[in-house]
Specification:
By secondary structure, the chain is α+β, with helices and mostly antiparallel strands. It is 35% helix and 11% strand.
Length: 112
């Protein structure tokens, strides 16, 4: 998948796919979340990740995402037609789920 200079925004959309054109696109690492990849700190993670995971869970997510970002940079390394970003997010959530689970209230808690 090539970077089209479009990214996802929760505020609305300009087309049926929910993507906005990024007029400031300078390199292919500005992707769907409108953030530069990989993440240097937890404060750069997507808002949904920051709001739902405890700090340690965010650390796991960030480290797994960044590792997968490098490991799956070539399309031939990914399954199907998944983008590099999509693959990295899937790997990151998988890593989090090895250590954390949701409790009955929907909060992420460390597994026993």
């Amino acid at each position: 998948m090539t970077d089209t200079g479009r990214y996802w925004s929760p505020e609305g959309s300009t087309d049926s796919s929910g993507f906005y054109t990024n007029p400031f696109k300078k390199e292919s690492t500005i992707l769907k979340w409108g953030k530069q990849m990989p993440y240097k700190s937890n404060s750069e993670l997507p808002e949904t990740v920051r709001e739902s995971l405890p700090e340690h869970g965010q650390d796991i997510y960030r480290e797994a995402f960044n590792s997968a970002w490098e490991e799956y940079k070539e399309p031939s390394e990914r399954r199907g037609d998944s983008s590099r970003e999509e693959t990295a997010h899937k790997v990151a959530w998988s890593a989090v789920k090895k250590v954390y689970e949701k409790d009955s209230k929907g909060n992420w808690v460390k597994k026993d």
